[in-house]
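Fig. S4 source data, part A: sequence.
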Amino acid sequence: MSIEQDIISLADNAKTCSWLSGYGAVSELVQLTGARSILEVGVAYGYHALHVIEACPDIEYVGLDPYVANYDPDDQFSRDVSQLFPVAGTDGLAINQSMDRLHSAVVHTLNRRSKSASIERNDFFNFSKQNRKRTFDLIYVDGNHTEEYVFSDTILSALHLAKNGLICGDDIERQSVQIGLAKAAKILKLDPKFYKHRNGKVLWILNKL
């Protein structure tokens, strides 16, 4: 399959993706806070990235995602990607090749829409080591939803947050997110708050003043 065919497949998949109905909360927070830069932890199909740069055309957007298969056995995402970008075989190598195709399609799609947006194929820990002094006005945590990663992603977010910046995330209904966030908030000595968008989407928020 060519990259152009993969880009078309990615666009077609958006037509039936249920995630899009929940978009709008993060871009509204960007507008309300006047944020000029955003780090999104967890890019996946890149649909939310496209939404943010279209809703906030002046934003500096950086997306962070390692694009590794089966990072969370309870998450359907890897299986969905292997169906969207099928590769011969059922082993881990084949699934990771599907992830490679997704990553490439997302990068090409985003590059055609924005000159100020970029995607780093990396996990947050290594990104942090390589960019110790880089800060963002708003950091959106929406990657691995296991307790361990919600905790570490939130702690790392605090290290890369600009003055008066905002950390937020979703899927607060998941127990793993609740526990990971609570542990991180306790260490950071911050009280989580919640923001409900008009579409019903609820984000948790930590504000480091």
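Fig. S4 source data, part B ends here. Helices lie at 3-14, 25-33, 47-55, 77-84, 92-113, 124-130, 147-159, 175-188.
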